[in-house]
Amino acid sequence: MFLVVLVAYTGWSSPFELALVRAASRAHLVADLAADAFFCADIVVSFFVAYRNTSTDLLVDDRSKIAARYLTRPGFVMDVASTIPLQIIYQLMGGKRNGPCGFLILLRLWRLRRASKLFARLEKDIRFGYFWTRFIKLICVTLFALHCASCVYLWFAYTYAVYWSMTTMAMVGNGDLHAANTSEELFSIFFMLCNMGLACYVIGNMTNLVVHGATNTFFMRDMVDRVASYGKTNRLPVWMREQMVEHVQLRFQMAELLQEEVLSELPKAVRSAIAQHLYKATVEGCYLFRGLSDNLVVQLVSEMKAEFFPPKVDIVLENELPTDCYIIVYGQVEALTTAEDGTEKYLGSLKVQMEDLTFSTDLRVVIHEQSSMASCRSAGKLVYLPGSLEELMKVGEEKFGKAATRVLTADGAEVDDVRALRDGDHLFLS
After folding, report:
1. What pTM, to 2 d.p., does this model score?
2. What is the rounded distance in angstroms from the CA atom of residue 83 to the CA atom of residue 75?
3. Which of 1, 40, 159, 283 has the highest CB neighbour number within 10 Å of its CB?
């Protein structure tokens, strides 16, 4: 929020200092350098801020990827150019403030995009009224345009012809300039007719752009209001209403990835081909469906669809007969049960990370030496199942003092993937 205040100061001071040379006092110079210092610190912080991958909608926190993404985007060059006091450096080298290079100060207006992003977030924030957010945004845009226009008038001296053309095009002519002969009258009629069509075209297109850009926000806020009203009317618990609102917000955030309406308009064969491309590898990699025929996998994938759940939301309730099968692609789920005294008991969890395909579970297995395979199982060691076979063999080496090269089940089958194991399995290391 502090940077937004500095952005507002930049939007006011940059055009003003360019238009009026005497406005660039020592106080303005100190304030500009202080603002540049804060924005320079913001550039450094940007190398450590996680970002959301637009193609997978996953949060990327790898510093090398964050730095590579920031350095390769045009925004980095503009951030640096708008932060370096180029105009001050130019003056120190003997240049004139009101020369051509004086326009370098306008590079600071690149920072105004932060204000635009702030208003875009506030419009989707249900804690703030959409009408007042849009109203304040339009007031700020109008005041900034008025300020820039005033500064331009201080710098430029428009000719009467340009002045007359602009007042006529904007349809706000004051009558201080008018045609003096027949030729000028005919040209004025033609010019005004063209301006009427041009004004209608520009206003219509701008209206369509504004309305189209705000359509999803309108729908999202309307749906949130309806869900909240439904919860209040039926006196649902607060936690249940919060889950409903979070689910609606997540649904609109993921609309670009799901595109259910677009897919519903496509032929069934095309939808099936898209599903094969998106989900077949996921189904084949799930241990529950390994070994199935390709025809059965194709039939399963054709009926699949992607779903997203916000944090701390119930997916399957206890004692509920499930009709769907969920495959976790990314995220973490926890299994909870209700004890006799009404408290929740933690059973375990499964965490899946899509980028490196590592699985972290809370499953427990009993490991034995292969020599005890034919004897009782009491000599085993109860351990948590690690994320890979190599780590499981290292655990066995630490427990029994012998290096292992294979992991066998109680039936003698060799384990190739830890994801195929279940809680409580007995494993034998050889």
Report:
1. 0.45
2. 12
3. 283
